[in-house]
Design brief:
CATH superfamily of the domain at 316-373 and 387-545: Leucine-rich Repeat Variant
Shape: flat
Helix content: 40-55%
Radius of gyration: 52 Å
InterPro entries: ARID_dom, ARID_dom_sf, ARM-like, ARM-type_fold, Chromatin_Remodeling_Comp, DNA-bd_RFX
Structural class: mainly alpha
Keywords: Chromatin regulator, Nucleus, Transcription, Transcription regulation
Region (Disordered): 169-271, 785-805
Distance between the termini: 88 Å
CATH topology of the domain at 316-373 and 387-545: Leucine-rich Repeat Variant
Organism: Tuber aestivum (summer truffle)
Strand order of the largest sheet: 1-3-2
GO biological process, one term: regulation of DNA-templated transcription
Number of strands: 14
CATH architecture of the domain at 316-373 and 387-545: Alpha Horseshoe
Number of helices: 37
CATH class of the domain at 316-373 and 387-545: Mainly Alpha
C-alpha cells in the first residue's frame, strides 16, 4: 500500500494522525483525476482529490468504478436497508437519511474499507463524498445527460433520493411560498410531473395551529365569536386538502377576526398620589387595630400581595450599599463578602462615583480599627490572645480595606478616594497602627492604596504621610519596605520642589545602599527607583557619594548594568568586493649571493628561477610585460660580456607560464584605442627569495627623507618620502647584527656629549624627538620589532606570510564574531528593568555630582566602555554617560 500523500494540508488537533490509503498513482488514476479536475473547474465547484473517510484516503477512481458498476448513484441509493419508507409526495425528502441502521448499499460500500467500529455514519459520509465530487460527473459522462446546476446539487446536502430525475427542469417552476432567509432545507419544491410519478401515501396533513388571542372583547360579542369558532373547528376537521398542479393549497390557520385588547388604567404614584397616601394610611390603621391579622406580615405586602408577587427586590449593589449603611451585622457581613468577590472578579466595573455613599461607608468601617488597637489589658492578665469577637471584627475591617485597595487600582477610583474628606487621615492612621502581627495585612492594603493614590495627593514639608512612609524604611518586614519605597517614589515623582525626599536620614539611605546588593529583583528595582528620584537633587547626590561609601555605590551600580545579562555571540558576515590599494610594482633588488646562484644556471632555467625569486602568485595582481622584461635586462645585462647571453623577449614572456602555472600573458584594451600587454597572476615580492626557497628579510630602518628641491609650488606641497635601508638579510640573526652595526653602533667614548639614539624602524616614534643616550634601553625597544626566528607555516611555499585565502573560506566574505552580553528589553526592543534604572542613576551622579561624581566614574571608565561594547540596548545610555564625564573634564 502506498504511503499517504494528501494534497491538502491537514491542520488542527488531528494534523499528526496516521492515515492509510488505497490510492495507486498509476497512469489511469492520474488521467482520471485530470479529467475530473478540469470538469469541476469548468463547472465552478470544489473538488477534494483525496477525501478522508475515517483514517483512510479514498481513491475517487475506484469509488467511481464501484458505484457505476452497481448502476450509478440512484441505483445504490434506492437499495434500502431497514430504514424508513420514502415520502410518497416528496420522494427525496427523508429518503436515505443514513441514520442508525438505514444506510443501505452505501453502508455496505463503506464497510468494505474496514473502518473503525465507532464510524456509525460511514455510509452517509461515503455518500456525501460521492455526491460532492462524482455525482455531476456521473450524470455527464456515464449517462450522457445534463446535470442540474450546482445550486441544486453540490451546494445542497446529500440527504435525499435519486438525482437522475432531479435535473434542471425540476426547478423551473416557482415554489408555493417564497423561501425565507432562515430556511435551511436543501430540497426544492416538487414539480407537477414529479408528484404524479408517485402514488398518494397515507400521511395526513399537518395538525393545524391556532394562534392565541386574548379575550378582551365585550360580552355582547360572545355569541358571534362562538359561531366563528365552531365554523373554524369544522373547517379544521376536514383532511381533504386540494393540490392543483404544482401549487399546494394549505388550510388557513388565522382566526377570522382580530380582537384588540382594551387598555385599563393603572394607578401609579405619579398619576394618583392621593390613592397611595390613603392606601398606606389604611394599612397602618389595620395593623394597629389588629396586629395579628395576615399572620404578622407587613401590611403593605398583605394588602397588595397579588401585585408584589414575583418581585426580585432591590438590585445587588443597592442592597450592598444600604446594608453597609444600615449597621446591621448580618447585612454588613453580606455586603463585605459580596464586595470582595465583585472587586476581584470585575473590579473594572466597580466605580465609586456610580454608587454614592459606598466608599464613605467602607472608610468608616476602617475607622473602627482604632478601637481594636486601643484595647488595654489589666495588669496581670494571663491570657493575652484575641477572642473570637476581636478576630471577627478585624476580619471584616480587612475585607473593607481589601475592597478599597482593589477599587483604588482604577485611576478614576483613586482620584475619587483622594478627594474624600477624611480618606487620607484614615489611611495614615491605618499605617500607624501598632507593630502587632494581626495588623500587618491591613498595613499592606493601606500602602497599596497610597501607591495608587499618590499622584493625587498634595506634597508638603509638614505632611503627616511622608514621615510614616519614612519610618517603614527601617522595618524588618520586606512588604512594608517594598511598599513604602514605591509609595515614596510615586509621591515625589516630578514634583519634589521642596526636596521632601532629602529629609530621609542617613540610616535609611545606608540601608537602601545595602539592599541593592541582594538577589531580590523586586526589592533591588524599588531601591533603584528610589535612588533615581533621590539623585535628582544636587544636595542629595553630594550626601550619597560621600567617601568611603561613594566608591562602593558606583561599583554596585556599574555591576547592575549587566544584571541577568544573557551572554552570546553575534555572527556578522561582511560581504562585498574590497578594492585593493594599487601600488606601483617595486621589484626587489637581489643580494649578490642570490645573483651568484642564478648565474650558475643556463637559460631558460635562469629566467624562470629569477621570476620565482622576485615574484609570487596572486590571482588579482598583474604586471606589464615591458616592466618585467626591463627588470630582467637590468639585472643580467652586465654579465652578457662574460658569455651569459640573455633570453630573447618573446621567449622570456613565454617562459612566465613555466615559472608560474596560473600566470598568463594577456592584452587589454585601453581608452583611446590603444592596448596594454600584461602578465596576469603574479606580483612583486616584498623581499626576495633564494633559489632554495629561503625568504630574505628587509631592513625597514628609515635612514632619511627624500626632500624635494625643485622649488615649484606643487612640489613644495608634497610631503617628503622616507628613505628605507636597502639591505636584505637572510635570517633574523643577520638582520639584528646589521642593525647593531650600522644603525645603533656603539658611541665613541671620547665624544662629549653622548649622541642621542632614536628608533627609526618602520615609522616608530619612540624616543622622538629628543632621543635617549641609554643604548641598552633603545636596543631593548628595537628588539621588539624583530621578526620571529621561526617563520609561521604557510600553505604556499613561495610566500613568507599567509595570504587572505589561508584564513578565510571566501576572501570576499569576512566572518566576524561579536561577543554580546545583552540585558532585558521591552516590546519596542529598548532597554528596560534594573540595568536601565542603574545607568540613569549613574547619569544623575555624573550630572549633579560635580567634580566628585565625575572622579568616581572615571575609575569605572574601562568597565563602562566594555559594557557599552557588549550590551547593545544600553550602549546609547552609557555613551551619554561617558560624554557627560568628558564634558566635565573639559570644563574643569
Amino acid at each position: 500500500m502506498a504511503a499517504p500523500t494528501p494534497e491538502r494540508e491537514r491542520k488542527g488537533p488531528w494534523a499528526n494522525r496516521v492515515l492509510s490509503t488505497e490510492i495507486e498513482r498509476t497512469h489511469e488514476y492520474n488521467e482520471f483525476i485530470d479529467k475530473l479536475r478540469a470538469y469541476h473547474q469548468k463547472r465552478g465547484t470544489t473538488l477534494t482529490i483525496e477525501p478522508e473517510l475515517g483514517r483512510k484516503l479514498l481513491d475517487l477512481r475506484k469509488l467511481y468504478n464501484k458505484v457505476t458498476s452497481l448502476g450509478g448513484y440512484d441505483k445504490v441509493t434506492e437499495e434500502k436497508g431497514c430504514g424508513p419508507s420514502i415520502n410518497p409526495v416528496l420522494p427525496w425528502v427523508g429518503a436515505d437519511r443514513d441514520t442508525g441502521n438505514s444506510q443501505g448499499a452505501w453502508r455496505d460500500l463503506a464497510l468494505g474499507y474496514k473502518l473503525a467500529a465507532n464510524n456509525t455514519n460511514a455510509g452517509y459520509l461515503l455518500k456525501t463524498i460521492y455526491y460532492k465530487n462524482l455525482a455531476a460527473y456521473e450524470i455527464s459522462n456515464f449517462f450522457g445527460k445534463e446535470p442540474p446546476p450546482k445550486e441544486w446539487l453540490e451546494e445542497r446536502s446529500a440527504a435525499g433520493g435519486s438525482i437522475m430525475t432531479r435535473t434542471a427542469e425540476d426547478f423551473q417552476e416557482a415554489s408555493p411560498r417564497p423561501e425565507s432567509k432562515g430556511d435551511k432545507s436543501p430540497t426544492p419544491p416538487p414539480s407537477e410531473k414529479r408528484i404524479r410519478d408517485y402514488p398518494i401515501g397515507l400521511r395526513q396533513a399537518p395538525t393545524p395551529r391556532t394562534f392565541y388571542n386574548p379575550d378582551t372583547t365585550p360580552q355582547r360579542q360572545h355569541s358571534s365569536r362562538m359561531s366563528s369558532d365552531s365554523r373554524q373547528q369544522g373547517q379544521q376537521g376536514s383532511p381533504n386538502n386540494q393540490m392543483n398542479g404544482s401549487t399546494l393549497n394549505f388550510p388557513s390557520f388565522q382566526s377570522s377576526s382580530i380582537n384588540a385588547p382594551i387598555g385599563r388604567p393603572v394607578a401609579t404614584p405619579r398619576n394618583a398620589p392621593h390613592e397611595f397616601i390613603n392606601h398606606k394610611r389604611r394599612a397602618a390603621e389595620v395593623l394597629v387595630s389588629n396586629p395579628n391579622r395576615h399572620g404578622g406580615i407587613y401590611p403593605f405586602r398583605a394588602i397588595r400581595g397579588e401585585e408584589l408577587a414575583g418581585h426580585q427586590g432591590a438590585a445587588l449593589m443597592v442592597r450592598i450599599s444600604m446594608g453597609l449603611k444600615s449597621g446591621i451585622p448580618s447585612e454588613v457581613d453580606y455586603a463585605l463578602s459580596q464586595l470582595v468577590r465583585i472587586s476581584f472578579e470585575s473590579g473594572d466595573e466597580l466605580r465609586a462615583e456610580s454608587y454614592p455613599g459606598l466608599s464613605e461607608a467602607l472608610f468608616e468601617k476602617l475607622v473602627t480599627v482604632q478601637s481594636l488597637a486601643d484595647t488595654r489589658y489589666p495588669e496581670g492578665t494571663g491570657e493575652l490572645l484575641e477572642d473570637s469577637k476581636f478576630v471577627k471584627q478585624l476580619e471584616k475591617i480587612n475585607e473593607a480595606a481589601l475592597v478599597l485597595r482593589n477599587m483604588s487600582l482604577q485611576p478614576d477610583n483613586a482620584r475619587y478616594f483622594s478627594r474624600l474628606k477624611n480618606g487620607r487621615q484614615i489611611i495614615v492612621a491605618c499605617m500607624n497602627l501598632p507593630g502587632q502581627s494581626c495588623f500587618v495585612e491591613l498595613k499592606h492594603y493601606a500602602l497599596d492604596m497610597v501607591e495608587a493614590m499618590a499622584i493625587h495627593f498634595s506634597l508638603a514639608v509638614d505632611d503627616d504621610l511622608f514621615p510614616t512612609l519614612h519610618a517603614n524604611l527601617l522595618s524588618d518586614d520586606r512588604g512594608l519596605v517594598l511598599g513604602s519605597l514605591k509609595a515614596i517614589c510615586r509621591l515625589v515623582m516630578g514634583r519634589d520642589e521642596a526636596n521632601c525626599i532629602g529629609q530621609i536620614n542617613k540610616c535609611a539611605i545606608d540601608r537602601i545602599k545595602a539592599l541593592i546588593m541582594l538577589e531580590d529583583e523586586d526589592l533591588v528595582s524599588a531601591c533603584l527607583d528610589f535612588l533615581y528620584q533621590y539623585t535628582t537633587n544636587e544636595e542629595n547626590v553630594e550626601k550619597l557619594i560621600q567617601p568611603p561609601d561613594g566608591i562602593e555605590i558606583v561599583k554596585q551600580l556599574t555591576r547592575l548594568l549587566l544584571h541577568q545579562a544573557v551572554p552570546g555571540d553575534q555572527v556578522v558576515f561582511l560581504t562585498g568586493s574590497l578594492k585593493p590599494i594599487i601600488k606601483p610594482p617595486v621589484i626587489p633588488n637581489l643580494p649578490q649571493e642570490i645573483v651568484t646562484d642564478l648565474l650558475s644556471y643556463a637559460e631558460p632555467d635562469r629566467a624562470a628561477k629569477w621570476m620565482r625569486c622576485c615574484f609570487e602568485e596572486d590571482p588579482g595582481a598583474d604586471i606589464t610585460q615591458i616592466a618585467l622584461w626591463q627588470a630582467y635586462q637590468a639585472r643580467f645585462t652586465e654579465y652578457v660580456a662574460a658569455g651569459r647571453p640573455l633570453l630573447p623577449a618573446a621567449e622570456f614572456i613565454k617562459n612566465v607560464s613555466v615559472a608560474f602555472n596560473n600566470a598568463s600573458a594577456m592584452v587589454l584594451p585601453i581608452p583611446g584605442g590603444g592596448q596594454k600587454f600584461i602578465i596576469k597572476g603574479i606580483k612583486a615580492r616584498e623581499t626576495p627569495m633564494s633559489v632554495k626557497g629561503q625568504v630574505y628579510l628587509a631592513c625597514k630602518w628609515i635612514t632619511g627623507t627624500n626632500s624635494n628641491t625643485s622649488g615649484t609650488e606643487t612640489a613644495q606641497q608634497q610631503p617628503a618620502q622616507p628613505i628605507k635601508c636597502p639591505s636584505q638579510l637572510a635570517t633574523p640573526q643577520d638582520l639584528w647584527v646589521h642593525i647593531l652595526k650600522d644603525h645603533l653602533s656603539p658611541p665613541d667614548a671620547t665624544q662629549q656629549p653622548q649622541a642621542m639614539l632614536l628608533c627609526n624602524w618602520g615609522g616608530c616614534e619612540r624616543f622622538h624627538p629628543a632621543g635617549d643616550s641609554d643604548r641598552r634601553k633603545v636596543i631593548a625597544h628595537v628588539r621588539t620589532h624583530m621578526p620571529e626566528t621561526s617563520p609561521p607555516k604557510s600553505s604556499h611555499p613561495s610566500s613568507r606570510y599567509p595570504t587572505a585565502s589561508d584564513w578565510l573560506e571566501d576572501p570576499k566574505q569576512v566572518k566576524l564574531v561579536i561577543r554580546r552580553n545583552q540585558t532585558g528589553i521591552d516590546d519596542r526592543g529598548e532597554a528596560a528593568g534594573i540595568p536601565l534604572t542603574a545607568v540613569l542613576v549613574l547619569r544623575n551622579v555624573a550630572r549633579r555630582g560635580m567634580f566628585n561624581g565625575k572622579e568616581l566614574l572615571s575609575g569605572e571608565r574601562p568597565v563602562l566602555f566594555e559594557i557599552m561594547a557588549v550590551n547593545k540596548p544600553l550602549a546609547t545610555y552609557i555613551a551619554d554617560l561617558l560624554v557627560e564625564e568628558d564634558e566635565g573634564e573639559v570644563d574643569d
